[in-house]
Task: structure prediction
Amino acid sequence: MRNLYTLFSGVLAGLVMTHCAPAAEEHKYSVIESLATPVYLSPENNVIVMQDYFTSPGEIDSVAANKGYDLRWNEAHSALTVTEAKGMHPVANLRVYTRGGVVNDIPVFKSTATEVNFTFEDPEKTYEQVMVKGAFNGWVPERSPMTWKDGSWQYKAVFYPGDHQYLFVADGQEMTDPGNANRQPNGFGGFNSILTVGNGATGGLVGFSNLTGKQLTLRADKPLEGVLVYLDNQLISEDRVTVGDKEVLIQLPEHTREGRSFLRVYPYDQNGLTNDMLIPLANGQVVTNTEDLSRTDFHTQVMYFLMVDRFRDGDPSNTRKVDNDTILPIANYFGGDLQGVVDKIDDGYFRELGINTIWLSPITQNTEGAYGLWKEPYTRFSGYHGYWPVSNTRIDYRFGNEAVLKELIAKAHENGMNVILDYVANHVHKEHPLYKEHPEWATSLYLPDGSMNTERWDDHRLTTWFDTHLPTLDFSQPEVVEKMTDSAAYWVTNFELDGFRHDATKHIQENFWRTLTHKVRSRVDRPIYQIGETYGSYDLIRSYVNTGMLDAQFDFNLYDASVAAFAKDDSSFGALARAVEQGMEYFGSHHLMGNITGNQDRARFISYASGDVRFDEDAKAAGWTRDIEISDSTAFKRLEMLHAFNLVIPGVPCIYYGDEYGVPGGNDPDNRRQMKFKGLSDKEAALRATVSDLVKMRTGNMALLYGTTELSLPQDRVMAIKRSYLKDEVTVIFNKTDKEFSGEVFGKTVSVPPHDYSIIIKN
Result:
């Protein structure tokens, strides 16, 4: 690592290229406010928007060049273009100096993309046109027409290692790849083919070996070629890091911030990056006990998503249904409110369950009317769910008022819990004053060809309307961005909320998220966690996750794989293991992605597991046409295994209300039944008690919060996961077979009953 940096000037016109080294007796910490997300290089040029890392890009003084890549500065847009150079290591560093000679370091990852050739055999050319669609092109086949040559249709595209879903479209007919038997349910009654990219030559595993005073020893299972070690956002001096064949010695820096800081380690070997490591420090010392962590350490979160109207009616005086006989009872208000949440904080429900983060569904004022339509049985809908706002800053009177929201937040904090708010920015209800006063601030309901621009989730994702009564806002207009980011920031400036869950993230331009995060950091002096909702490819999801936008998104690709793995007896654990690894590849080994048990837009997991909702049917129609209960009680064990899985892997576990005891249901609105606190069956009560134990195991063990992650598949339907942090170690083995599993896992002989799991904890 010697002579790593030289001051880079030539093409950085407009930057002041001199800087003063800080005095030896004082240390100037990076001005980047949170941990700088790595730059993931793609095969093409990569633009780094400096506002993502620096609240005031004008403070940038100079940039140091690294031999691993080339830089070009765009002064007008405060952006760097980074191009990979020959001989680049798997990870390099970008050093940016800000005024006063302050050092700011950002990891840069070499691209791992591979070109893939899709082939569709058609020797006689029986089709006129064949296209391929998948998560990689937003499921828009017109973006990827195939070319017929020598008896087959072909198309080339670039993919990163992992599993990627796709379909062929031949003369308008969708079909899975006849030459690929690897496929999985698509959640809508059909299947998608799975493309697996990568040859298995992945980087090795680096884990904790020993901590002695201020020296940390790491051990690798393969010879290492190098490592970059950061204290927060500054590269640690090379004389404090020693890299041996399979060992790394790190002398902890003498200077650390008071309170929380983090050591970040990025090792690599001949096959590329290994796992990265994230090590929390308290006043310069490695944290070894979870009692030294707090709710603002967001890796410790276990989230609970509740739909306010369906949770608990704590104040009957504000209960009021929409008075319209076209709305069936299940699509109308039930009466739940914020006072009901306060009551459950008071009686210890969340504390007993182990929850430390409450996610509230949207609480802004919604329309009073009946909208939308379901034909059989005929019904319209109320805005009970909160996603049809007619105000962005006023609390719906059915849910309470500012006083009760402040009480809820205060009591949650007293009990060591965060509160995050679901915020809707993408659209408003057509009765919203903003739309009435500025209809030009919405996108067009009709496309140029005259077709209606509704539910065009992928081919018109930034303009599509969710329904004809929900105008989508046009965030290409600066006035709209300013108005809606101010409305969102209102909630964290006027209430001590701890973060946002953002609805419909992928349908909003990136500038909105950059502007919002910039405003939040400028106006609020406390950690704010932001997690988004995006259905799509890993690349699309990651495009919104960085220091200047969102902290995380929900990992629906992982959820789809986990439903297929745990709800079906005959499915392998292979796809699920690859999904875990792919998540770490894309978002880091210690990401903050949301790992869900379910949500308001999916049929309940337990109903798939019991067979009462089939994978090949429309789950929404199922919820309307029959009473869905639990006909196979083994589904409780399957749901328990899903909970255990979510609570041992990296990320933020998120329990959808009722999943702690196994409420059944089809899709919306059947998946939004009234929460039940009393009168549980024996199996429901047992599941809730077990989930409580699992949650407390998660939050009470450093290995499950900051440990390394290993996966093993000793059999097709047996999967083991091990998390390790210093002397703490947790191993979970899942056995889906109908026989007891007995064998060696991670060097230990274990036995696991059929259709069950075992947990081994070592301290």
Remarks:
- Residues 1-111 form one domain.
- Confidence is low (pLDDT under 50) at residues 1-24.
- The two ends are 36 Å apart (CA to CA).
- The chain is about 20% helix and 30% strand.
